[in-house]
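User: If only I could read backbone structure tokens as easily as an amino acid sequence. Those tokens are not coordinates but codes from a learned vocabulary of shapes. Could you go through the record with me and say what the backbone is doing? Here is the record:
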Amino acid sequence: MARPTKSVDDTNRNMTKQERAARKVVQEMLNQANSMPPEPIEELDKSETEIFDYLKNLNPFYSVRNSISLTHLAQNLVMRKKLYKEFKVMEFDDTDFDTQQKRIDKLDKSIESHMKKLSMSIEQQNKLAYDIAKMVQENISDEVENEDEIPKETDAVLRLISKI
């Protein structure tokens, strides 16, 4: 398993001032995201909101980064409950029996994947966020190389923020 990512202040590799400033901004954004509570990314109905709030309160370390998985997990759980109610009253000879069972199985897989995402450790989340930030930074540096004039450090940082 790879070692956890170090903060910008703890790294001892050679970086330009521009790269160090961009990484510091991304690191601050990640730290702020860790302190913000998760919010639904879509409008939820009453039962979905209850499940979302219940799941959110289960783990005090859930943050904005977990909003997508929490929202989809709440929606999938409500949808599975509705489909299962319909499935229970169906007859075995019904033509939609197999399709309903397949839909429930797909929802189960989706629920399982969202639960795995929510169980991802903070170190893994930071590593994933770092990799995404690195990729964005590389895209920005490619754009800077393609431009005629070299922008100031602040322009690169602002571009990085706008890309994220």
In short: Residues 17-163 form one domain. The two ends are 27 Å apart (CA to CA). The mean pLDDT is 77. Helices lie at 17-35, 46-58, 67-89, 97-118, 122-146, 153-163.
